[in-house]
Amino acid sequence: SQQGEEDPQALSIQEGENATMNCSYKTSINNLQWYRQNSGRGLVHLILIRSNEREKHSGRLRVTLDTSKKSSSLLITASRAADTASYFCATDVSGNTGKLIFGQGTTLQVKP
Amino acid sequence: ETGVTQSPTHLIKTRGQQVTLRCSSQSGHNTVSWYQQALGQGPQFIFQYYREEENGRGNFPPRFSGLQFPNYSSELNVNALELDDSALYLCASSLGRVRTGELFFGEGSRLTVL
Fold first, then answer.
1. What is the rounded average pLDDT of the residues B68-76?
2. Which pLDDT tens digit goes with each residue over A71-85?
3. Who among A45, A99, A103 is closest to B42 (CB)?
């Protein structure tokens, strides 16, 4: 079963705008990760946030985590056409062993 | 470029056949995980191998089996293929029980079952 639920399922924005994706999960976690997937390709790790962290930045990415609400958000600032991809949140619920549970993903389209 | 390679990239099988997918992990990584991703869905955990032993399994039937070799490369075998097995199969490597939990994925093997 899916642990994470992403919202929205699809998002279309203009280049330069910000994109926000949300993820909710059901059980306690050790960490939450975000991955990106270009169409039909492998997944690329973007950022990991631990359960005792509230916010993390990496370049144009900002991730927040609210463990009381069991939710996370991924913000991509100043989006580019190259950011067009699917974005997945994934939770590690049994320690840092790489057995991740993925959500359904948000498909982001950035129009030039 | 994650350093994880998978083969074959695409293959077509018929129902009832058997398939073997291969994965070469990133240098130095001793853990390999396999995921199944149906079209439009998120990846689903199949199983993980750590130092040649199965180290956890998701909700997949026994006809899904795997191996990890001394060089930490891995195989995923699926017997008695069903139409619903059509999916992208992703291999991911990581360094055992390190704290990050970050996975390095290959580009996947796309299996079509007719």
1. 94
2. 999 999 999 999 999
3. A103
